[in-house]
Amino acid sequence: MNTVMTxxxxxxxxxxxxxxxxxxxxxxxxxxxEDLAAIEASARAHxxxxxxxxxxxxxHVSYAMARHAGSVIASxxxxxxxxxxxxxxxxxxxxxxxxxxxPAEHLPFKDAxxxxxxxxxxxHHWRDFEGGLREARRVLKRQxxxxxxxxxxxxxxxxxxxxxxxxxxxxxxxxxxxxAAQWFSGLGRAGFAVQSSRTWRLxxxxxxxxxxxRTPPDNIRAIHILQEAASAETRAHFxxxxxxSFMLDVLMVEATAE
Length: 258
Hints:
- The chain is an alpha/beta fold.
- It contains 13 helices and 7 strands.
- Helix content is 46%, strand content 21%.
């Protein structure tokens, strides 16, 4: 059987992000933002003993939480990404960050291990969205705060289909951007109580967006073809520019473990 066909999703994610670890540590989109400031403000207010950065990527949530937490676990699928996070933490003299390799759906931690959780731009890569949310709840103490940030899909199917298509062409480890309603219902079923949420739009500069993932030229051309063929409503919703840059919808949800 073809090895490509039998490759597990987790291996696809690792293959996509491992060689790009440095780019995600240095990414301006990931290294700043009001949402990252909000996560740090919440960590400052709660002063957690043990915090979890679930799907840490370039580690920006870990760095923000580490300044106010006793210890931080940066958890991710990619060994190379975790190595980059550990190196950056050392460079920044953040000695309370530990890295752990694990999928979101199968965390190697005991129940009620953490009293704070941050999860930013990770869930759209999970094989099992609600399984990851259940694990997040399992490892949190009761009433512990959790903040989730991710791109979210518009409620209209026309826009949703376009978004999922260009996301997958750009990054073949993409699974799904979920709607706000799916986030709220999934969190509720996992045992979280939503406290607040906010949305905003983030401009994705097309050359930077594709270069960060080293999107193959054929896939870049396919994205442009989809954008050019998109309906007027779709082009307007995403504010698609001549070079392919567009506006991405982002959701932040603050919740507590019930």
